[in-house]
Amino acid sequence: MLSIPKHSLKILVIGGGGREHALVWKLAQSPLVEKVFCAPGNGGTATENKSENVDIKIDEFAKLSQFCLDQKIDLTVVGPDNALAAGIVDYFKEKSLRIFGPSKAAARLEWSKSYAKQFMAKYNLPTAKFLTCNSYNDALRIAKANAWAQVIKVDGLALGKGVYVCNNKDSVENSLKEIFEENKFGHAAETVLFEEKLNGEEMSLFLLCDGKDILPLAPSQDFKRRFDDDCGPNTGGMGAISPPANYDKFKDIFFESIFKPLQTALRSEAINYQGLLYTGVLLHQDQASGQIQPKILEFNARFGDPETQAVLLRLKSDLLPALWACTEGKLAEINLEWSEEKSCCVIAVNSDYPEKSSNDKTITIPSQSPEKIIVFHAGTKLKDKNLVTAGGRVLAVVALDAHLEQAAKKTYDYLANLNFESMDYRKDIGRLKSKIH
Questions:
Q1: Has residue 72 been placed in a domain?
Q2: 8 A C-beta contact, residue 407 and residue 400
Q3: Which of 5, 69, 65, 70 has its CA nearest to residue 34?
Q4: Secondary structure of residue 343 in the 3-state scheme
Q5: Could you read off the pLDDT of 193-225 as tens digits, one per residue?
Q6: 29 part of a folded domain
């Protein structure tokens, strides 16, 4: 039986982006929660109900753990991937602090793409074929010998930007030069993967895990390309919708070909994965036969951004017991209720994003938000009590409606009344036609 203390809980959310604001916003709604701290937080978490920012960086584990001890924090929720990869969960557990997130060993499914691919191959999880290399010359040799090798990924963490989808030999060579000769990603690119280029539609599947069982959250779909019609460089994410149009059509296939074997694989690997496992999936459509099969593109060891903003707006249940259950191995006791409405999330960015960020530019947000519209902050901060920019992805506007088209309209109508210098955003989130027919 899941046992949560009856006293008012104190929660710490680690991170400072839009995902963390969404987590703070949702956790603060819990009747079990008295206070939510966010380290370091942003301009939105500074003013959210029941929340307070803490001026501690995500890599300052000693300061974070001491804060938890001093404040008697009941649960810490980790947002960013780099904190997990650096072993924050292991550090906290050594001090007997309850924390939501996978250990460093378990989070390797994200911080080493080559390990993740080998894990998928070992347990026959459906994924694209791949090869790895460790030098520019080896990479060129692989590219020339394998016409299918047109997707290039750096092995380590790269802030969502270490993926190149190439269309010809020139783009492959240019990408490899950026990685190896210009050293754009540093140690993250000591190993590089080549993957087969697949065709189809991506979906983001969030799975809560407690070491034994998994519980899927509402599905979503994010849009990584910088410009409309999925053009331009990959980014950390320019928007998201929930649910994707084709999810229900293929739900049974997801369960049989991904959820069930993945749960078996996690148990067999004995890594005791406790936290959120983000499974990026492509509905691959074979060009010759037209047959559709889900393929796992990648794993992330935490909530995605901006998918979290789109997903949590649809969650009607209290999130706190579900996260708590993951830390106790009692996820089987949790049931979550979801709104039937659709959500559309659009990210407002600096016009030069992803190459440049925006700093100290005044942000104007309407004082009143219409019903079922939420603004989540990412690259913002309070300066002399004024809201200003502090990043490339600045804000996320999310709307709910019975129809996705109307949710998108609400989002864009609201964005028209929001402003900061050099603001830009994609105009087609929630309006793109499905690639699967």
A1: yes
A2: yes
A3: 5
A4: strand
A5: 999 988 888 999 999 999 999 999 999 999 999
A6: yes
> What is the number of alpha carbons within 13 Å of residue 295 lying toward its C-beta?
22
- Burial class of 250 by CB neighbour count within 10 A (0 to 12, 13 to 18, 19+): buried
114's tokens? 């080559």
In the numeric block, the tokens 């990648």 are attached to: 298
User: How many angstroms separate the most distant Cα atoms in the chain?
Assistant: 63
Q: Which domain holds residue 177?
A: 129-196
Phi-psi category of residue 225: left, alpha or beta, with phi > 0 → left and psi -120 to 50 → alpha: beta
Question: Residue 431 is encoded by which pair of tokens?
Answer: 């309006």
Residue range 389-408, pLDDT digits in tens: 999 999 999 999 999 999 99
Q: Are 16 and 42 in contact (CB under 8 A)?
A: yes
Please state the domain count of the chain: 4
Q: How far is CA 215 from CA 119, 274, 426, in A?
A: 20, 12, 32
Q: Give the DSSP per-residue string, 81-141.
A: HHHHHTTHHHHHHHTT--EES--TTTTHHHH-HHHHHHHHHHTT--B--EEEESSHHHHHH
Task: Look up the pTM and report it.
Answer: 0.94
Q: Tell me: do 246 and 359 sit in the same domain.
A: no
Q: What helix, strand, coil percent values describe the chain, rounded to 5?
A: 30, 30, 40
Ordered DSSP codes for 39-84: EE--TTTTTSTTEEE----TT-HHHHHHHHHHHT-SEEEE--HHHH
Confidence check: pLDDT of 434 > 80: no
In whole angstroms, what separates CA 300 from the centre of its chain? 7
Which one of 145, 171, 196 terminates a domain?
Answer: 196
173 and 85 housed in the same domain: no
Burial class (CB in 10 A: 0-12, 13-18, 19+), 394: buried
